[in-house]
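It would be a great kindness if you could assist me with a short task in structural biology. A protein sequence and the structure tokens that stand for its backbone fold form the material at issue. I should value your view on which stretches of the chain appear to form regular backbone elements. The record follows directly beneath this note.
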Amino acid sequence: MLQVQLEVGADPAEVGRARRWARSRLAGSGIGEDEPLAETLVLIVSELVTNAVVHTGCPAVLRMLFAAEGSVRVEVSDRSSRPPLPRHALGDDTNGRGLELVDGLADRWGWEPEGAGKSIWCEIDRAPAPVPPAREEGAVSPGRVPC
């Protein structure tokens, strides 16, 4: 398992730095920037880091863990012991969608106490590349006439 981490300051401008850092680490782990998984993970990083920085006003630590079987775990730890409070944003609300997005995009997510604060984590299973269906011997491809 490969683990990388970034310390994030208590400034909302740090969210952009966290996204750039995550993109570079994903590329280094073999997840191409054109893969849907990469954009999903960057969005999750953005939401979790934003929540930590904006709602706690404290520095945070972003971790990404790449498992050999292909799953990716994103963790954001902060110094606040307050549990995360998922909200349901309405229509034109500009806030309140972060954990809803994480819940919809991740295969699993949760939180746990960590030291004097907490860690919010999520995991995404990297789908294996699709295997083309096997052709039966003597089968003819559609649109082709046998010789």
